[in-house]
Amino acid sequence: MPHYYFDVHDKDGAFEDEVGLELPNMDAAITEARRALADMTKEMLTGAGVQGFHIVIHDGVDGPVRLSVSLETTWPNGKHHAG
Amino acid sequence: MAVADEISAFIRKLERRDSISSEEKAALVAAAGSIEVFAAGADLVREGDRPVRSMLVAEGFTTRYRLMADGTRQITAIHLPGDFVDLHSFLLKTMDHAVGALSTCRIVTFPHANLKLITQRYPHLTRMLWLMTLLDAAIHREWIVAMGRRSSLEQLAHLLCEIFTRLSIVGLGDRNSELILPINQTQLGDTLGLSTVHVNRTLQQLRAEKLISWQGQTVRLLDWDRLARIAQFDAAYLHLDAEPR
Description:
CATH architecture of the largest domain in chain B: Sandwich
Largest interface: A-B, 20 and 15 residues
Order of helices and strands of chain A: EEEHEE
Largest sheet of chain A: 5 strands, antiparallel
Oligomer: heterodimer
Order of helices and strands of chain B: HHHEEEEEHEEHHHEHHEEH
Shape of chain A: elongated
Number of domains of chain A: 1
CATH superfamily of the largest domain in chain B: Jelly Rolls
Strand order of the largest sheet of chain B: 2-6-4-5
Distance between the termini of chain A: 62 Å
Strand content of chain A: 25-35%
Largest sheet of chain B: 4 strands, antiparallel
Helix content of chain A: 10-25%
Radius of gyration of chain B: 18 Å
Radius of gyration of chain A: 17 Å
CATH topology of the largest domain in chain B: Jelly Rolls
Number of helices of chain A: 1
């Protein structure tokens, strides 16, 4: 089975995966990355000022594939509207 | 190896909490049955089994785990040498979880009939066996707190502080030792309730911050004080005082 590496880029820096995972194909690797983004989102987005983070999957053949999560905060009526 | 040597880690674990008489030690040795070896990845006991004996780990690492319908696994405990992994089956009868070997394990079996004799003849030793299951429960509680309320970094730091502390209790190294932890990133994820990729990233952060080194299965804690502070590790839940019980 091919080997996939998952580099994580977030508020604490870039974490290059040196171990990787053996998975049947890139679709399975994308599923794995989505699972990781899901459980990282909870603690990432509660960190003040954090607006996003992403994972880049490398396999040396098929990639890279980048998956990102971002938070958008908007004030549809403007921030200082009078009451 | 003599049974007395095989259960020496268990005796250390007991003696950390209370004194054990030579009569009680002899009763434990007399209650032991066969000594068996399990390969890494093998199950010592499966969910749904009705064992007629309990198992004490002499050497190696084991886990308690549950398998989910979709094939995912949750590890609910990591057991080390000196742990009586399967004392539960003596009274629970039907296993509600499995126990698997993380590394090659040597275990001492204790037929339930012999454990029953201990409970009839040795009230203090019986309380000490009871204490062992209470300690398992205390560790479960700490893990629930970690899974519910700690960040992944804190949770992983806490698990490492716990494992190193528990190994030192049974005479396997100390906070500054280089230890062999036969657990890979997927198994760590199954333990912490995190994805493998998240575990990898978190281990890298611990490494980058010079808190641990982890090469293959060789692990060293580089800064116990800082790691314990991050983890908010307080060994009180391991009840390390020797006192009459």
